[in-house]
């Protein structure tokens, strides 16, 4: 049996803890939110995970441009794919949640829009990768786009939503998850949840990257 | 090739080289006149079409609607402007360019070229929309500051994306797909800023948006400058 590295054991432990505490733990009674406040453990970590995984993707693109090692390009592409999966999960869980709290699946909330744009950008990135057949060309062109896109995504997600009041809990006077409203017993679950889900994302990417690199080596023999 | 006689990489100051590339682009433009004519016709016919849609749909064009229509027109014209410029440099005459110009200077002069052409487009849109509909802009100065910053943002984002898409060999298909999402941040700030220009509010509200827009433009120009040489190399 292959040996797992320590952070994978940590991920397993955290995810068991989050799954148990997420559904069984005590949550505060808040108007409108009620039990949906548990979405904090599952929906919000998707966004943190997505941004961190996209950050890793951009980092590997920079590494590719610096070193010219094609493995870095494989890593960049794979992390973008996993980031999109996280983004889709985040947007779906968010929409289901919004249906029961805001009344609509889509309410033109700045954070919803920012994340939809982020998904479009990275799907465009995958499309770009798919449309170039030469490996070296693809790596270089896609890396340039990836770095550029990430630099545009950051102001979009973190700065522009501050311009208008968001419907999100904790914004514009809504009751919610901001540090003051968050009950003492939610934080010990929320922070591990963010860490755990992010690690799950990196684990998935790690597996895919190893598979792709082995496949590429096998094909090039 | 005689038209590139002004380009000389080893000698000559930076501004001189940029001027030479720009001059060459405008001269090609002047000889063929296709892009300018296409742009003129594109803006004219699309403005007229929008006018028909609103007129027949009996929709009232409020100042806010006018503003939105203006930016939609500028947005689509920017794709028209940027659309084909890199085809020459990246395919037919690629090797010639690698010998005579530095990549940084090429992207910079392309950016200036797109910016100037987009200004022409914005001016045309302004003229046509003002003829068909009543022009509601109160603070013309602030509105044109917005237009300049917006055009700078559009052209800087689209110049690099156009280079990427041309390199990938599918410019016409990829440019809109890759370009639209990247323009949304600029578009949001630009529209908020131009709404301020519609009624003469005091400029205190506008400054924050102007700074954000300058920041976004700076990020895009800086990154184009850094990243384009990697795209250019073979």
Describe this structure in words.
The complex is a heterodimer of chains A (221) and B (234). The model of chain A has no long low-confidence stretch (mean pLDDT 82). In chain A, helix 1 packs across helix 6, helix 3 runs parallel beside helix 5 (135-158) and helix 3 packs antiparallel against helix 6. Chain A has helices at residues 6-24, 44-67, 70-101, 110-131, 135-158, 187-220. Chain A is mainly α. By secondary structure, chain B is mostly helical. Chain B has one domain (2-232). Chain B is 82% helix and 0% strand. Chain B has helices spanning 14-32, 34-56, 63-82, 86-92, 94-100, 103-132, 140-168, 171-198, 204-232. In chain B, helix 8 (171-198) packs antiparallel against helix 9 (204-232). Chain B is globular. The model of chain B is unreliable at 1-6 (pLDDT under 50). The A-B interface holds A 65, 117, 120-121, 124, 127-128, 131-132, 137, 140-141, 143-145, 147-149, 151-152, 155-156, 159-160, 163 and B 157, 160-161, 164-165, 167-170, 173-174, 177-178, 180-182, 184-185, 188-189, 192, 212, 215-216, 219-220, 223-224, 227-228, 230-231, 233.
